[in-house]
Automatic annotation (TrEMBL):
Plastocyanin-like domain sequence ranges: 60-171, 181-321, 362-468
A GO molecular-function descriptor: oxidoreductase activity
InterPro entries in UniProt: Cu-oxidase-like_N, Cu-oxidase_2nd, Cu-oxidase_C, Cu-oxidase_fam, Cu_oxidase_CS, Cu_oxidase_Cu_BS, Cupredoxin, CuRO_3_CopA
Gene3D superfamilies the UniProt entry points to: Cupredoxins - blue copper proteins
Keyword Metal-binding found: yes
Region (Disordered): 31-65
Organism: Haloplanus vescus
Pfam families to which the protein is assigned, alphabetical: Cu-oxidase (PF00394), Cu-oxidase_2 (PF07731), Cu-oxidase_3 (PF07732)
Keyword set, alphabetical order: Capsid protein, Cell cycle, Cell division, Copper, Metal-binding, Oxidoreductase, Virion
Family matches, as PROSITE patterns: MULTICOPPER_OXIDASE1, MULTICOPPER_OXIDASE2, TAT
Protein's name in the database: Multicopper oxidase with three cupredoxin domains (Includes cell division protein FtsP and spore coat protein CotA)
Domain of life: Archaea
GO biological process: cell division
This protein's record includes keyword ATP-binding: no
Length: 471
């Protein structure tokens, strides 16, 4: 558990799959410049209107109890794990005052929602980090509607528990449902997170099956609870129940199944898609899926989330019908026969500004560093010592990625949605072993934006670039 951070030793922290080929290398310099440089473009201003909702969050240390026999002193927002659910209406102005009661600096990033650059929460890129004892106010208009989350973006703080859900409700929902639950998935680390180069990881659950080391996680969590103490989702027969799944983990790709029920996937990364039936889905760190389940099968059933890259017992929650004897053992899910694929996703609306040929294309290679240290790179460069990807306002930008490593990389772009296949997303898994993904976005939010792997440890070891608007 932790929030996404990006820093390469404390500086900062920090997808369908295309068949298009990807070549190593960067886009050519911008026209009219000698080396790809240019004058920075002023970001759009922050919101000045009075807030519709004002909240305060305090980053502090506290104790969590994910099971009756497990407790951990860690870092929390308002003493809660996950942090308080922030819920607003689409278009509302949200003001959040962060008070830092930690003994080190911190920030908050608003994952997935395209805020103005100065309130994106990336230290030393969009703001100075918030020093111990200081406060900082983030104010932005909450749009579009969707399932998002917030987390620290400093170093490995995300893996200490600094995260929480952010729900922006549709004013006119396009999906009918009677009740909803937010389901936050995370990995559980009871000790201070460290990079392998600092002695912080071992071979991990699968003994390196996916070609990477893995933090010594002691379990997997749903809404802060280990599987021996699963949360319960109460349902009434005949209801349509919406589940908002958030992968807030630091390093885990989850496979999610619901026992006894099919899922109708209605949103990907908060954005509506044509409903598609599935009995399971896979999502990487930073991704979100909304599903609707028809409560037509009374009983007690497990919602189960397995780590695809670890051997921890699966995270579990219980779907319990109100008419069911609570002493009945919940039924586990059967093996999956209809797993959701990126190619199944079709957005209900198109993304503006990305039709036709792109104005600018970046061909990027994702790989492990060549030296003996634990380093991850984009085109052979490790953040923060990496060249920015420079773009101009109004451009249709294409990024083609080839993953030369055996490890999957959930790549996340701040400040923008992108089109990948027929879906609109902000985070996408790039498969290992020369897997390729192409994404297109419209350069409509000036500033300096982080583009990075949302595996926190890959990010902290260098797998990031800054996307920089220039004139």
């Amino acid at each position: 558990m932790t929030s996404s951070g990006l820093s390469r030793r404390k500086i900062l922290q920090l997808s369908g799959i295309s068949t298009l080929g990807a070549l190593a290398g960067c886009a050519s310099p911008l026209p009219g410049t000698d080396d790809g440089g240019g004058r920075a473009v002023t970001p759009r201003p922050t919101v000045t209107a009075d807030p519709d909702t004002s909240v305060s969050l305090t980053a502090t240390s506290g104790t969590i109890r994910p099971a009756s026999d497990a407790s951990t002193t860690t870092w929390l927002y308002d003493g809660q794990y996950p942090g308080p659910e922030l819920r607003v209406q689409e278009g509302d102005v949200l003001s959040v005052e962060l008070a830092n009661d930690l003994q080190e600096e911190t920030t908050i990033h608003w994952h997935g929602i395209p805020v103005a650059n100065p309130v994106d929460g990336v230290p030393n890129v969009t703001q100075e980090p918030v020093a111990s004892g200081d406060t900082f106010t983030y104010k932005f208009r909450a749009e579009p509607a969707g399932t998002y989350f917030y987390h620290s973006h400093v170093g490995l703080q995300l893996d200490r528990g600094l995260l929480g859900p952010l729900i922006v409700e549709e004013r006119d929902p396009h999906v009918a449902y009677d009740h909803e639950y937010v389901v936050v998935l995370d990995d559980y680390l009871s000790r201070e997170p460290r990079l392998p180069s600092d002695g912080g990881m071992g071979g991990g659950g699968m003994g390196g099956m996916m070609g990477d080391v893995r933090p010594p996680y002691e379990g997997l969590l749903i809404n802060g609870q280990l599987p021996e103490n699963p949360p319960t989702f109460d349902v009434t027969e005949g209801d349509r129940v919406r589940f908002r799944f958030v992968n807030a983990s630091s390093a885990t790709v989850f496979g999610v199944r619901t026992a006894g029920h099919e899922m109708s996937v209605t949103h990907a990364d908060g954005q509506p898609v044509e409903p598609v039936e599935a009995d399971s889905f896979v999502f990487g760190a930073g991704e979100r899926y909304d599903v609707v389940v028809e409560a037509t099968n009374p009983g007690r059933w497990f919602v189960q989330a397995n780590a695809l890259d670890g051997n921890e017992p699966p995270a579990r929650a219980v779907v319990e019908y109100e008419s069911t004897d609570g002493s009945i053992t919940p039924q586990p899910p059967s093996s999956s026969s209809n797993r959701l694929q990126y190619g199944d996703l079709r957005a209900l609306s198109s993304l503006d500004g990305v039709s036709g040929d792109p104005d600018r294309t970046f061909d990027l290679t994702l790989s492990r560093g060549r030296n003996q240290s634990y380093t991850w790179t984009i085109d052979g460069q490790a953040y923060p010592d990496a060249d920015p990807l420079q773009i101009r306002p109004g451009e249709h930008v294409r990024i083609r990625m080839t993953n030369q490593s055996p490890v999957v990389h959930p790549m996340h772009l701040h400040g923008h949605f992108f089109q990948v296949g027929n879906a609109i997303k902000d985070t996408v898994i790039v498969p290992g072993h020369r897997g390729q993904v192409t994404l297109d976005f419209h350069a409509d939010n000036p500033g300096r934006w982080l583009f990075h792997c949302h595996n926190l440890y890959h990010l902290d070891a260098g797998m990031a670039r800054v996307v920089e608007y220039v004139e």
